[in-house]
Amino acid sequence: MTRYDRYILLMCLSFFGFFALVLVSVYWINQGVDLFDQLISDGQTILAFLELTTLALPPIIMMVLPVAGFVATLYVFNRLITDSELVILQTAGISPLRLLRPVFYFGAIMAFLVAGLSNGLAPQAEAQFRERSNILGNDLVAQLLRAGVFQSPISGITIYISDISPEGELQGLFIHDRRSETREVTYRADRGYLLRDAENARMILVSGRSITLDRVTNRLSNLSFERLNYDITQAQSPTASGSDEEGEVLPENERAMSTPALIAADQDLANRAGIPLDRIKWELHYRFAQAMFAFFVPLIAASCLMLRNFSRLGLWAQIMLAVGLVIPLQMSKNLLSAQVTNAPHLAPLAYVQPLLCAVVFGAVLLAVYKTAHWRPMRQPDLVEGGA
């Protein structure tokens, strides 16, 4: 690697790190605000919030990396052209393809990072994020410790708590239980307590009344009580944890599956997990296609800025051209994904996106050769020296 290659590559990596940090922070904070409101309103702790936001980082980083690489390349080559460094190299007779060699290295690094995240860290983080979200979502004690709102922690049950004392006493309770097909029961109590053992959550209702509607006979019964033990978890589904009848742990979505699991997936697994097979196959191919896309994005950015020589009017036209080319290429992923619906054999269409990137890069590079008027370099040591 020559001094020129190291110089450009280090600049790209430096500014890539800066832009990646900024973009990841913006996305992370934006997602963290919504997650914070949801968790705190459900009675969860700050530690639960930090755990979930940390698990959400790998998918965010994977999404941001190509954008950060694109912006960093635009910034570096805009700076090279503005400072006339690239103009001097072109005047020396260096070909456009040779000038782009450090960008090839940079694109390869981008592809390696995205491939590592999409095939390794991101699926594991997604699986743990789903698992922790389900555990926290099934934490009835945390969900019920909310005053002044109607809640439905379990399907068929509506609970309202007027207030919660500093000692944890529930005041002004209202419970409507319609889980049974033959009757509906409404409970009202002056106060109560929430207890939980290893598996169940129970409420001790004190000084209240229950009204039962028999749906078969349409008769009402009214009962007063001084103390009532009410179990609110007796109707929870035993398969809510994501396991089938045989106890096998099934993925909740295709993004939480490892790459070997995606390769081995068949229609039987898709039916048991409730995930369409076309989505599983698409996810498998897209993980590799995404790495290829990340390789070409910096090359398109650099080649667009090399279309013309230095101008006092700036390079806004070239920058807007690069943005206008990359955005449709990024959006093509959604269009291609829609074509795979109910057709798993079309999943290799995921590679159309990097193929289009290669075609666009080739077209722009050809235009660079036609407009650069470069001549063979007469003094190779201008670049090759100090390798």
Characterization of this structure:
With 387 residues, the protein is of the alpha+beta class. 57% of the residues lie in helices and 15% in strands. It has helices at residues 3-41, 46-55, 57-82, 85-91, 96-99, 101-137, 140-144, 259-264, 267-273, 277-305, 316-339, 352-372, 381-384; strands spanning 150-151, 157-164, 170-177, 183-196, 201-214, 219-231. Helix 1 (3-41) packs antiparallel against helix 2, helix 1 (3-41) runs parallel beside helix 6 (101-137) and helix 11 runs antiparallel to helix 12. The protein starts with a helix and ends with a helix. Mean pLDDT is 80; it is low at 235-243 and 377-383.
**What is the helical fraction, as a range of percent?**
55-70%
Query: Structural class given helices, strands, pairing?
Result: alpha+beta
Strand order of the largest sheet: 1-2-3-4-5-6
Low-confidence stretches: 235-243, 377-383
* SSE sequence, one letter per element: HHHHHHHEEEEEEHHHHHH
| Count of individual helical segments | 13
Largest sheet: 6 strands, antiparallel
Classify the beta-strand content into a percent band. 15-25%
CA distance, first residue to last residue? 6 Å
Question: What is the C-alpha radius of gyration, as a whole number of Å?
Answer: 30 Å
Could you tell me the mean pLDDT?
80
What count of domains describes the coordinates? 2
Gross morphology: elongated
Total strands: 6
Kindly summarize this structure in a few lines.
The chain has 387 residues and is of the alpha+beta class. It folds into two domains: 3-137 and 257-384, no CATH class; 144-231, no CATH class.
